[in-house]
From TrEMBL:
Pfam families the UniProt entry points to: Molybdop_Fe4S4, Molybdopterin, Molydop_binding
Keywords: Iron, Iron-sulfur, Metal-binding
Assigned protein family: Belongs to the prokaryotic molybdopterin-containing oxidoreductase family.
InterPro entries cross-referenced by the UniProt entry: Asp_de-COase-like_dom_sf, MoPterin_dinucl-bd_dom, Mopterin_OxRdtase, Mopterin_OxRdtase_4Fe-4S_dom, Prok_Mopterin_Oxidored
GO molecular function: iron-sulfur cluster binding; metal ion binding; molybdopterin cofactor binding; oxidoreductase activity
Biological source species: Ktedonospora formicarum
Classification via SUPFAM superfamilies: ADC-like, Formate dehydrogenase/DMSO reductase, domains 1-3
Entry protein name: Molybdopterin oxidoreductase
Length: 681
């Protein structure tokens, strides 16, 4: 790849549903420049600090460029370079020494920086090989989707619809760190006169776009939603026609709501009863109203499905599903009505669960590791110590696992401590890829040859399948043909399937077929009744509350409620917790804990003080960020730091009997709950 070229691609950060466009310039296999793509229909030239910093992957002295095998004991972090032949032999012999169901495949965001191809082929590898594999949504957005799925409202309106039509916008746990492309649409809506309310556990960058900010204690969102529903019904602001035609169980729900008064919710949320009534009136009367829900953080507690279940009922009560400017706004793990990728696994017959299957249930996975039920674990683009709740148990489980491989761009804490083999990953510009947003599909052309001895994950899977005699792993001519398989659900103007070549002719941009900016125009909801279910028989049969509910958190001997989330300057544990890229390392030099001045003063803590966060599970060190942007009694830290989950709970949120009652969305997230004490170091 010689000569100066300009290439349009997408950011590798995976801030779904946000995916920002990039324009890169390369020459002689070197990256010369990287900037936001002004023509991208979604991002319009925007590129945050994370995207801009990604150019520091290349020619980075910390980047992994050769296979490495462990020398000495685990935890010593001593390695020697080995050949790919040796690496493949280590993996295949480790798999051949055990049974397929004692082999696990775990993938993280790092495996999806170029779209669905890696993860889909890993799934194919697992299905054909008989290996254990799991939905990694359980460390992120799954509990939100689970609650929405029980109610029946998984589809969303688009950000474009919100900008053009919503009169009231509730940003409920939604941050621009997860959805940076939402910001210009909020600006458009507000210029048009929309009223924006930000509801969260702390003030964030999204608060600057709001007319009003409401701070809630962590885990109290369901209480507020139920109180809003109470007011809507009590004051006769509900849409009886919509309820009769498109919902199930309203009479039981209305009776159930009588207990959830604004006064009851005020004692839990700290919000004055009249403010709760005012919020309910605005939402029900200043319509259309859109609720943009957060994707992950607001669901990371012991009863994490309850907020989504309750919030999803509000548009149904007011008849706003299927309306321009109504319903639910864009959300991580969700999409609007329209055609997306084709199912390229459709040629495989799903295997019935066996007695040895380990479900997509974080507590069960941790127990399997601790109980030595896995002999081989292949980790692709993930730092499990940073992403799993109760990392102490995960660490113990990894120590029990016979052979662990890590595939990544940089070393990470899981690899340093527990890997036996480390494989160098390709960066997103070194392979061809494909990404989709809520509205568009984008081509990612290969811009550079892989650095060092880095191999693509597709190459590795195909070679392992060959050596293990796993047939039918790659029934496509080449990787472009593989991408064509994903595109085949899209039809061109002539009715032919969309291809990479045709996508190139469209400058790499493609609006999805049959796209509707408004979800549920047909009022066909994702439940067996095809209605919004206030009463859920599925939930009742699985041992969960059949009606939307709020469960108070269990008390604890520690005084401060700890929670975590995302910032614009980091993305989970990417790039060795952000420390491998100079720009991100400068923005995040060490863990920083947000603490209210009242709590800080009691503990003789000032801004910048070195502190220790402690509970009975463990402890870790950080620096204090004293701020009134968080409530007293609550402390907060960005996720991705390995130490964060030394103090969090790995208890299950739902029992195994309830894990799979929402199609395609497991309820297997662990609680992540934590109560802590903080003291000066």
């Amino acid at each position: 790849m010689v000569g100066k070229r300009q290439i349009t691609t997408m950011c590798p950060m995976n801030c779904m549903p946000t995916q920002c466009g990039m324009t890169v310039e390369v020459e002689n296999n070197k990256l010369l420049s990287l900037k936001g793509d002004q023509q991208n229909p979604d991002s319009r030239g925007f590129l945050c600090i994370r995207g801009r910093a990604s150019q520091e992957i290349f020619e980075n002295p910390k980047r992994l460029l050769h296979p490495l095998r462990r020398v000495g004991e685990r935890g010593e972090n001593t390695w020697e370079q080995c050949s790919w032949e040796d690496a493949y032999t280590m993996i295949t012999e480790s798999i051949q020494r055990t049974q397929p169901d004692r082999v696990g495949l775990w993938r993280g965001h790092g495996a999806g920086t170029t779209g669905p191809m890696n993860n889909t082929l890993l799934s194919r590898f697992g299905m054909l090989g008989g290996f254990q594999q799991w939905s990694t949504s359980i460390v992120c957005w799954a509990m939100g989707g689970y609650g929405l799925g029980l109610t029946g409202a998984l589809k969303t309106n688009t950000k474009e619809d919100m900008a053009a039509n919503a009169q009231t916008i509730l940003l409920w746990g939604a941050t621009l760190a997860s959805q940076p492309d939402l910001a210009p649409h909020l600006v458009e809506a507000r210029k048009r006169g929309a009223y924006i309310i930000h509801i969260d556990t702390r003030r964030t960058e999204a608060s600057r776009h709001a007319n009003e900010v409401i701070l809630l204690p962590p885990g109290s969102d369901a209480a507020l939603a139920l109180a809003l529903a109470h007011v809507i019904v009590q004051e006769d602001m509900h849409n009886q026609e919509f309820i009769e035609r498109h919902t199930l169980g309203f009479d039981q729900f209305a009776t159930h709501l009588q207990q959830y008064t604004p006064e009851w919710a005020s004692a839990i949320t700290g919000i004055e009863p009249e403010r709760i009534r005012g919020l309910a009136r605005r939402y029900a009367q200043q319509t259309p109203a859109t609720i943009v829900m957060g994707g992950s953080s607001m669901f990371k507690h012991q009863h994490g499905w309850e907020p989504a279940r309750a919030i999803a009922c509000l548009p149904a009560l007011t008849g706003q599903y299927g309306l321009a400017g109504g319903g639910l706004g864009q959300r991580h793990g969700a999409s609007p009505e329209g055609v997306g990728y084709a199912n390229v696994l459709a040629d495989l017959t799903p295997q019935a669960p066996s007695a040895t299957s380990i479900p997509s249930h974080m507590t069960s996975i941790t127990e399997a590791l601790v109980n030595r039920s896995l002999d081989v674990l292949l980790i692709c683009g993930s730092n499990m110590l940073s992403t799993f709740a109760d990392s102490n148990a995960i660490a113990h489980g990894l120590e029990q696992t016979g052979f662990i491989m890590s595939y990544d761009l940089f070393m990470n804490e899981t690899a340093r401590r527990y890997a036996d083999l480390i494989l160098p990953a390709t960066a997103w510009l070194e392979v061809m890829g494909l990404k989709q947003t809520a509205t568009h599909i984008y081509l990612m052309e290969q811009a550079l040859q892989p650095a060092g001895e880095a191999h693509s994950l597709i190459t590795i899977i195909r070679e392992l399948a060959r050596r293990l005699n796993i047939d039918n792993i790659f029934p496509w001519r080449d990787e472009e043909d593989y991408i064509n398989a994903f595109l085949s659900a899209q039809k061109t103007e002539t009715g032919e399937p969309l291809t990479v070549e045709h996508l190139r002719q469209q400058k790499g941009y493609w609006q999805k077929n049959n796209l509707s900016h408004i979800a549920y125009l047909d009022h066909n909801f994702q439940t067996s009744s095809h209605k919004v279910e206030f009463w859920s028989e599925r939930a009742q049969q699985a041992g969960l509350a059949p009606l939307p509910s709020y469960t108070a958190p269990a008390g604890d001997e520690y005084p401060l409620r700890f929670c975590q989330g995302r910032t614009l300057t980091a993305f989970h544990a990417f790039f060795d917790e952000g420390q491998a890229l100079p720009t991100l390392a400068k923005a995040n030099p060490r863990p920083e804990l947000w603490i209210h001045p009242v709590d800080a003063q009691k503990r003789h803590i000032e801004r910048g003080t070195s502190i220790v966060i402690t509970n009975k599970r463990g402890q870790f060190e950080a620096q204090a960020h004293v701020t009134e942007d968080i409530l007293p009694g609550t402390v907060w830290m960005r996720d991705g730091w390995v130490g964060v989950n030394r103090v969090t709970s790995g208890a299950p949120i739902v029992p195994l009997a309830a894990n799979d009652i929402v199609s395609g969305i497991p309820g297997g997230q662990a609680a992540y709950d934590a109560w802590v004490e903080v003291g000066a170091k």
